[in-house]
Amino acid sequence: MKIDLTNKKVLITGASRGIGKAITEQMAEAGATVAIHYFKNDTVANDLAKKLSNGCQPFGADLANPSEVTKLFDNVIESFGDLDILINNAGIALQSPIGTKDDQWLDDWQTTLRVNLDACALLCKKALELFSMKQKGKIINISSRAAFRGDTADYMAYAASKGGMVALTRSIARAYGKFGITAFNIAPGFTRTDMAQSFIDQYGEDFALRGVALDRLTEPKDIAPMVVFLASGLADHATGCTIDINAASYVH
């Protein structure tokens, strides 16, 4: 089976590294033109766009700032002329122990939700407006096993934000299927990325591997093929579903 995404325009948030980069590379390999969102890694994003060609372009935005989120979407449409697939991958995980002072703890909580959930929701809203007019479009949100099993006390905001993504995606699938729009969740577990490294450094790799059924941690390259498959349209009747890619460390 060959997946051909030629002429498909895709926006991927957090696309310059980790899971997002792996998805970007495989989307481009399938022929898609990717809007490579980044926050600070402009050099990396530019280099990636040049390497992939296909008309891929980098777009910078701070997802904690709603006006920049809106501008990101508008800039992609202005540059590409259209959008077929939205992939909300970007996320942060701020360590915030329960003993942290209230103001700081709440700031960590709100920052996490602004990036992980609010930006995702706003981009989904913008995409739905466009997709509804076209009567087609796909949204793929990268959630987490933490949405279902929770997380450690230091990362409760992360788990809550990812749980919100799951409910958002299911609502989109239920409400917009008749408009030709499908929506999916991917729920990774520990994945060997820069973002996960601070957790691994704190708790140790043995802790990260606890409960994993396979002999190694999941890597970004293990997640990307499923995203490309969902983007292809070959699994549209799975709309609303969550696909666990966590080496059986949590299966719901």
UniProtKB/TrEMBL annotation:
Residues of the signal peptide: none
PANTHER family for this protein: SHORT-CHAIN DEHYDROGENASES/REDUCTASES FAMILY MEMBER (PTHR42760)
Protein name: SDR family oxidoreductase
Domain of life: Bacteria
Molecular function GO terms recorded: oxidoreductase activity
Species per Swiss-Prot/TrEMBL record: Splendidivirga corallicola
EC category name: oxidoreductase
InterPro entries: NAD(P)-bd_dom_sf, SDR_fam
Keywords noted in UniProt: Oxidoreductase
Pfam families: adh_short_C2
Alphabetized Gene3D superfamilies for the sequence: NAD(P)-binding Rossmann-like Domain
Recorded family membership: Belongs to the short-chain dehydrogenases/reductases (SDR) family.
EC number annotated for this UniProt entry: 1.-.-.-
